[in-house]
Amino acid sequence: MASGNLPEDAVREILLMLPVKSLLRCKSVCKSWYTLITMPSFTTAHLNCNAALKRNHCILIKRFLKESNKSVLSFLSDEISSNDHVPPTEITIPHSNHFLQMMGSCNGLVCLTDHRDIILCNPSIRDFKVLPAPSFNYPRGLFSMTLGVGFGFDPLSNEYKVIRIAQLHEDDDDGAGYVFHSVIVEIFNLSTNSWREIDAVVPFVWFFPCSELLFNGHFHWWADDEDHGGESMLSFNISTEVFQQIRLPNVCAFPDGNERGFLVLNESIALLLFNPSEQTSFDIWLMTEYGVAESWTKQFTIGPLVQVKRPVLFWKHELLLEKANGQLVSCDLKFQRLKEFQVYGAQESFRAVAYSESLVSIKQAISISMMVV
């Protein structure tokens, strides 16, 4: 296609319909195309176009490969029912290890952390940024340890934010451990490339696989429920920077031997309770009205499933799961039939998010004004 034979507006509209991989190639066609594709306004328009047409959606998977001792990102196509081969592209993650977690994506960006290093990336364009470590002057003798990390986009301030919930503690004089002091909250603003501390009183945050979730402009963690002596879902509004504790169903009486997880199902937060064993069952609860504890309703039970250990992601009418041998499988929700994928990773290393590709670079992200997708 020779751009000289087409009006500039027509070229722009054609390019907006292309996937990111094709646009990256198109940047090499001519200087005018390069200039157009790299403009922040084009990136925003491409995001809006993807969202409006609900296209370029896929599954982004993180897993750890023992043979190469690295964590990689891979894409699974939109139609997972017909895709059982090894993902063709493996994107190596810098500073990665077996314990790396992946937070929910927004505008093509995802957050990765091992609760020490925090990485922002756009896997579509292979763009990575390791965030600087917080450099606050904590009271003398106190040290910080990350409990939970969150990530999201604030459409009101046009700002990407990383949230760090940390525990301050002092070393035990006997050298046998540490003494808990308090929980603090720190926020990284991508526009300023810096951390700031906010005044917030939050409960102790726990980690379970799939227990950290971005949904509906809020980030969520599994936490203590100090008021009711049990457990809660801790919610953080990305825009207002206000925390809310949402009580969980009474069946969540920790410790009860079960593991927990938060996923998204039918545009609602789903709570999964399960006990990994030779035959694992998953009790599925939905919060049918966001933020209302009384709306938790048990929907159904999946299983028992043989040698299936942990949930990974709800995708359309299927639940992606990790088997005991580190293989990725899916279970259709209607008939509960398992389908195996030739995709493997180290045990307990799988994480996945619903992903929509974008051209947003980490440097360019501060100038992107767009709804969260």
How do you describe this structure in short?
The protein has 373 residues and is mainly beta.
Give the helices and strands, then pairings:
Layout lengths: L7 H9 L3 H7 L4 H7 L2 H14 L3 E9 L4 E7 L14 E2 L8 E2 L7 E4 L4 E5 L4 E4 L12 E12 L4 E13 L6 E12 L4 E5 L6 E2 L6 E3 L2 E8 L4 E8 L5 E5 L11 E7 L2 E7 L4 E9 L8 E11 L1 E8 L2 E6 L3 E6 L5 E7 L6 E6 L17
Which terms summarize this structure?
373 residues, mainly beta, Neuraminidase, five-stranded antiparallel beta sheet, four-stranded antiparallel beta sheet, 10% helix, 45% strand, disordered C terminus, F-box_dom, F-box domain-containing protein
Describe this structure in words.
It comes from Escallonia herrerae. With 373 residues, the chain is mainly β. It has two domains: 1-55, no CATH class; 57-356, 6 Propeller (Neuraminidase), CATH 2.120.10. It has four helices and 25 strands. The chain has helices at residues 8-16, 20-26, 31-37, 40-53; strands spanning 57-65, 70-76, 91-92, 101-102, 110-113, 118-122, 127-130, 143-154, 159-171, 178-189, 194-198, 205-206, 213-215, 218-225, 230-237, 243-247, 259-265, 268-274, 279-287, 296-306, 308-315, 318-323, 327-332, 338-344, 351-356. It starts with 7 loop residues before the first helix and ends in a 17-residue tail after the last strand.
